[in-house]
Sequence to fold (128 residues):
Amino acid sequence: MLRSRSNTLPPAIGNIQAGTLRAIAVAAPQRLAAIPDVPTTAEAGFPALDVVQYYGLAAPAGTPRGIVERLNKELRTIVTSEDFKSRMTAAGGSPVASTPEEFAANIQREERQVGRVDPEARAQGRVT
Fold:
């Protein structure tokens, strides 16, 4: 019997690094710095499985562009700081600073991918 489980990396990384949990692959476009010996799902033979967990900040529709730009500037300063990058990398993250347009494009791409994986979600209008 093959037992498997998927999880986000932060709660599992300590066990993976200690050898008490075996990671078979990471569902990311490239290997993660925190566990460089673990292949990506594409390298493991599953190229269509690319699920990246990311966090972002969204403002209400109609927020003035100047406010959005100021928030983005401040967040980019934080995300690109050496302290933040080292903490996120140690926890298994890969910090990326993006523009509001890039973030919106990521959300749209993820919605399309979920629609391919979960046709029921598309049929119910939960994704476009």
Remarks:
- Residues 73 and 100 are 10 Å apart (CA to CA).
